[in-house]
Amino acid sequence: MHSGKVIAAKKIISSHIHRTPILRSRLLNKIANSQLFFKCESLQKAGAYKIRGATNAILNLTTEEREKGVVTHSSGNFAQALSLAANLLGIPAYIVMPSNAPKVKKAGVIEYGGHIIECEPTLEAREATAAEIVQTKKATFIHPSNDIDVIYGQGTACLELLEDHTGVDIIVCPVGGGGLIAGSCLAVNDMNLNCTVIGAEPFEVDDAYRSLISKQIETNQTTNTIADGLKTQLGDKNFPIILDHVDSIIRVTEEEIVDAMKLFWQYTKVIIEPSSAVTLAAVLREKLVFQDKKVGIILSGGNVDLQNLPF
After folding, report:
1. Strands 294-299, 115-119: parallel, antiparallel or unpaired by DSSP?
2. Which parts of the sequence belong to the Tryptophan synthase beta chain-like PALP domain (predicted)?
């Protein structure tokens, strides 16, 4: 069903996105006691991997659908990614954002050409407002992580990493809504490699960890984490892929996330957001799992408020 779809996505989006670099650090390798290959989606357009999925979803619409535009609800990176992807492809993007969304995120959406529609800060309000726009504007709804074309697009980050370094033993991905890790699993399958996929998640929002154990989608009672991109939950399209292909999920503390952010900046001079830093934190927490292995790490984004760095 999914075979070859990530490779196909890469062919149609490659001229619209950056092929991001893979960074290596001798000192981080020494600390981790493994060989680390960092796929820097922090250097992607709009500062995160999400433009990959947004672009693929738009390019898979019909001409008529594209003309009427796209709509999503997001207060984070996907809001900016869909706005920019739509802008670059010359179509309107309607972005439903909660009234309490950070000003910097709203400014980013406007800068990238998105039309913001504010709503109450509840999931019900977001979904109802998006549905209303679909009805009135006839725009196509694109979910940030639970849309199959978005999932295929997100997987292209991992695909590029595996093309550049075919000997990677383990891929480590952050887990929020599940689109990136599901796409990464499919990329490993498309490359037909003997490579394990491991998720990384904060203890404070460990719904994916619990979902993998219970084999059903779990939710979080609280979302008290610095990794704001990982507060969303898995969906019915990405969860079956995760269940079939993800080996395990490693949970990390808030302190470990901040330490990993700081460490990566210290040794590479690149700023990554907390949601990215969970991956390095996971590798450093469970060193024995990764010892002497070649480890591909997907750094999902670098959108950090520099006025409020946690270190």
Report:
1. unpaired
2. 13-301
In this prediction, what percent of the chain has a pLDDT beyond 90?
86
21/62 same-domain check: no
Predicted TM-score (pTM) of the model is: 0.95
Q: What are the helix and strand counts (H, E) for the chain? A: 14, 10
- DSSP H or E stretch at residue 245: helix 239-245
Lookup result for tokens 């199959």: 148
Q: Please tell me whether residues 242 and 280 are part of one structural domain.
A: yes
Task: Kindly state the tokens that stand for 25.
Answer: 């650090």
The answer, yes or no, to whether residue 173 has pLDDT greater than 90, is yes
Catalytic annotation, pick one of 74, 75, 184, 211:
75
Tell whether 188 and 283 lie within a shared domain: yes
Domain check: are 57 and 88 in the same one?
yes
Catalytic residue list contains 14:
no
Over the stretch 3-15, which tens digit does the pLDDT of each residue have?
Answer: 999 999 999 999 9
* Tens-place pLDDT, residues 123-172: 889 899 999 999 999 999 999 999 999 999 999 999 999 999 989 999 99
Annotation marks residue 34 as catalytic: no
- Active-site option among 39, 50, 106, 231: 50
What does 209-230 look like in DSSP terms, one character per residue?
A: HHHHHHTS----S----S-GGG
